[in-house]
Design a protein that fits this description.
CATH class of the largest domain: Alpha Beta
Protein name: YjjG family noncanonical pyrimidine nucleotidase
Strand content: 5-15%
Strand order of the largest sheet: 3-2-1-4-5-6
Number of domains: 2
CATH topology of the largest domain: Rossmann fold
Structural class: alpha/beta
Helix content: 40-55%
Shape: elongated
Order of helices and strands: EHHHHHEHEHHEHEEH
Number of helices: 10
Pfam family, one: HAD_2
Radius of gyration: 18 Å
Largest sheet: 6 strands, parallel
Length: 228
C-alpha cells in the first residue's frame, strides 16, 4: 500500500484530537460557569452514547445541527433526572461549542507521527464536525500546519459517508482516489465511506472494539510501521 499512496486523509475528532477528554473538560468548565451542581461522571456516562447516536443521525441527515446541539444535552439531563430549564440548555449548548476548542489534548504520538508522515506524504483533513470549531481545534492544538487541505461537511453540504465529500476532498487535493488513504475511527463514515469513493482505508480503534477485516490500528504510532 505505501508504495502507491501519495496522500493521506485524516478524520479529526476521535482520531487525532481526543474528543472525549476535551469534551469532559469543556463540560466541567461550562457547568461551573453556569453554576450547575451536576455530577460530571454521571452526566458523561449518559451523554457520551447519546452524543454518538445524534452524530450518527446527523451524518445520515436525519437531524439538523441545532437539534443535535440541543437534544443531546436535553436527553442527557433527562436520563440522570436533573431538572433544568430549556433556556439553560440552550446557553450550555452555545457555551459548549464556544469553549470546546480551548482544550486540545491529542492522542499519543500525534505530533511525532504527523511530523514523520508529512515528510513523505501530503496530509489532509476530512471532518463532519462543525466548521466554526474544527479549524480552531487544528490551530489551537498546533497541528494545522501539517495539512495541505481541510474539508468540513459544511463546506461541501454533505457529510461522510456520502461519496461527494470524498470526491470534493480529492479534487481539492488534486489527487486520484487510487493514490489516497483515509484514516479514521468511524467504520461507516470514514472507512466504508472512503472505500466506496475508491480510497484505501485504515481504521483507528484504540479500544479494539470494532470488528473489521481490513487494516486496523490501536495506536497512531502503528501508522509509521504501515506507511514508512
Amino acid at each position: 500500500m505505501k508504495n502507491r499512496i501519495t496522500d493521506i486523509f485524516f478524520d479529526l475528532d476521535h482520531t487525532l484530537w481526543d474528543f472525549e477528554k476535551n469534551s469532559a473538560l469543556t463540560f466541567q468548565k461550562i457547568f461551573f460557569k453556569n453554576k450547575l451542581k451536576v455530577n460530571l461522571d454521571q452526566f458523561l456516562d449518559s451523554y457520551i452514547p447519546i452524543n454518538r447516536l445524534y452524530w450518527r443521525l446527523f451524518s445520515e441527515d436525519k437531524v439538523l445541527k441545532e437539534d443535535l446541539k440541543y437534544n443531546r444535552l436535553q436527553e442527557s439531563f433527562m436520563k440522570i433526572d436533573y431538572k433544568i430549564e430549556d433556556e439553560v440548555i440552550h446557553q450550555l449548548s452555545e457555551d459548549y461549542v464556544m469553549h470546546l476548542s480551548e482544550y486540545n489534548f491529542l492522542f499519543d504520538d500525534t505530533h511525532e507521527v504527523l511530523d514523520r508522515l508529512s515528510s513523505i506524504y501530503k496530509l489532509h483533513i476530512i471532518t463532519n464536525g462543525f466548521k466554526e470549531v474544527q479549524h480552531l481545534k487544528l490551530k489551537n492544538s498546533k497541528i494545522d500546519h501539517y495539512f495541505n487541505t481541510v474539508i468540513t461537511s459544511e463546506d461541501v453540504g454533505v457529510k461522510k459517508p456520502n461519496p461527494l465529500i470524498f470526491e470534493k476532498a480529492l479534487a481539492d487535493a488534486k489527487v486520484h482516489s487510487s493514490k489516497s488513504l483515509m484514516v479514521g475511527d468511524n467504520l461507516e463514515a470514514d472507512i466504508k465511506g472512503a472505500n466506496r469513493a475508491g480510497l484505501e482505508s485504515i481504521l483507528f480503534d484504540p479500544e479494539d472494539k470494532i470488528s473489521h477485516h481490513g487494516y486496523k490500528i490501536k495506536t497512531l504510532k502503528e501508522l509509521e510501521t504501515l506507511l514508512t
